[in-house]
Every structure is written in C-alpha cells, then in structure tokens.
C-alpha cells in the first residue's frame, strides 16, 4: 500500500519569507569564484546590477555599456506636438489610438496614447542624449490596442546634424527669431514642408513636419530644442 511521506514542514518548517534571502545569499556565495575574469569594483548602481545575478528580480535602470562610454554631445528635447490625418487603424470604430515612439541608437522613448483621434494633440516632450551625429532619430506611430499587438501607423526619421551645427555657433548677439538654416523637402528626407533652424528665446530650435512612410497618409509635427551639457559629462 502507498504510504505518503511526511510533509516537509514536519521536519524542516519553512518560515515565511525565509526562502528567498537564503537563495540570494547562496548565489552570491558561489558565483564570484566561478568568474574567470574579475569585474571592476561596483562604483555605480548600474554596474552593480550588471555584475549581479540576472535571475534576481530587481527593477533595473539599465543603460547599455556602449552608451555610457560614448561622450554626450548634448541633449535633444523633442516636443511631439501633433499628428495630422493619421490612418484609421481600428476599422470597427473607424479611428485610431495613436502614440509616437522615438528610437535613437539603443534609446527608445514614447508619448502618451491619444484615444480615438487621427488628428491627435500630444504636446509631449521627449529628451534624447545625443552621442552620434551620423545616426538619425527614427520615429514610428503606433495604434494602441487592448487585446492585440499595437499596429504601425507609419515611420519617419530626422537628422540631428542641422540643429547641432547651429548650436555650435556663437549666437549670443543674434536677435530673437533669427533663422539659421532652412531644410527643404526632398525625396530622400521625410519632410512634409520646409524645416527651419532658428534662434528663439536664447535656444536653438527646429520645427519639423514629418510625412509618415509605409502608410497611406499622416504627418507628425515636432519642435526640437538643443540642450547643451557640460563637456566631459556622460549621462
Ligand atoms: Ca486601437
């Protein structure tokens, strides 16, 4: 006849909450000698998290190491103002729930979702540390969906070199509103109209209308502002 073995708790009672710290302690006790190359001492929380065991569930403020080592040339403040004539992605309700994602290198930032609106006003400011002028900022509009994956509503991209070049100029004595450069829409860029780099309120700014591609219609209005950072400081 089958004789059930006594429950584990009868011999070794498990205290609530005792299992996890003990397991973490074991991992830390056994892992370091197994590493073939010694890691540098943890001087920042990010490095400590990278050096730690990845299976330990912690909130991770993760920044890829390549980003941390590249000098930051400045920050680009991107105000995603509005979308115009975006495509209908929800056929049943004949509208869309659009939001904008910006990609720059390994960075990804996004706006809020504007529900049921193909002419949305976001007015959200997204900030990107700029490390490499040869890389464009890529933009994609998505339709937020509750039960299925979000659908693309078009892509675009823009260069950071025009505003960066203007930000290097000595504009202290320029009058407010001075236009520094005009970029015209051509086949190779995504501009839906002239883009102006200007000196406004003591800042170098650029307005952009981007025509979305891979989609039937839609454009997105952006206002860029260059934010200087202290030289040598990495973010
Ligand atoms: Ca939707």
TrEMBL record:
SMART domains named in the record: C2
C2 domain boundaries: 52-173
InterPro entries: C2_dom (IPR000008), C2_domain_sf (IPR035892), CAR1-11 (IPR044562)
Chief localisation class: membrane
UniProt KW keywords: Abscisic acid signaling pathway, Calcium, Cell membrane, GTPase activation, Lipid-binding, Membrane, Metal-binding, Nucleus
Any one of the GO BP annotations: abscisic acid-activated signaling pathway
Pfam families: C2
A single GO cellular-component term on record: nucleus
Compartments it resides in: Cell membrane; Nucleus
Keyword Cell membrane belongs to the record: yes
Record region (Disordered): 1-38
GO molecular function, one term: metal ion binding
Record family assignment: Belongs to the plant CAR protein family.
Stated name of the protein: C2 domain-containing protein
């Amino acid at each position: 006849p089958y004789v059930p073995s006594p429950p584990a708790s009868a011999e070794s009672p498990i205290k609530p909450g005792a299992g996890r710290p003990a397991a973490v302690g074991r991992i830390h006790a056994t892992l370091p000698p197994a590493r073939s190359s010694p890691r540098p001492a943890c001087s920042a929380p990010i490095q400590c998290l990278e050096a730690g065991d990845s299976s330990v569930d912690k909130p991770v403020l993760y920044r890829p190491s390549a980003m941390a080592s590249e000098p930051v040339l400045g920050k680009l403040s991107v105000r995603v103002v509005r979308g115009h004539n975006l495509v209908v992605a929800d056929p049943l309700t004949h509208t869309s729930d659009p939001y904008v994602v910006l990609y720059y290198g390994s960075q990804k930032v996004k706006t809020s979702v504007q529900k049921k609106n193909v002419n949305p006003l976001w007015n959200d400011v997204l900030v990107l540390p700029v490390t490499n002028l040869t890389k464009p900022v890529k933009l994609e509009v998505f339709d937020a969906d509750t039960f299925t994956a979000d659908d693309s509503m078009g892509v675009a991209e823009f260069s950071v070199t025009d505003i960066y070049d203007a930000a290097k100029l000595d504009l202290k004595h320029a009058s407010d509103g001075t236009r520094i450069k005009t970029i015209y829409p051509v086949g190779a860029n995504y501009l839906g109209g002239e883009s102006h780099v200007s000196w406004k309120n003591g800042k170098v700014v650029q307005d952009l209308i981007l025509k979305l591609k891979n989609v039937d219609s839609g454009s997105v209005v952006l206002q860029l502002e260059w934010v200087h950072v202290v030289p040598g400081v990495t973010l």
